[in-house]
Amino acid sequence: MQGIIPHETEDGILLRDASGAERPIRKEHIREMKTGTVSLMPSGLEKAMTREEFADLLAYLQSLK
Fold this sequence. Notes:
By secondary structure, this protein is α+β, with helices and mostly antiparallel strands. 20% of the residues lie in helices and 23% in strands. It has a 3-stranded antiparallel β-sheet, with no helix packed on it.
């Protein structure tokens, strides 16, 4: 299962997948957590966007750092 963890508690995590769906997972159900090496962004996404939309997306992502 892949996603980002927007929230973590003593009991578990909230996992958000690439579609934006969120799923709570209790820590006792987690065998291993590791940082992924592949982006959750769909491959080829930039081909479906205008140059301006892609520039806006990059600017937004950079603002999250």
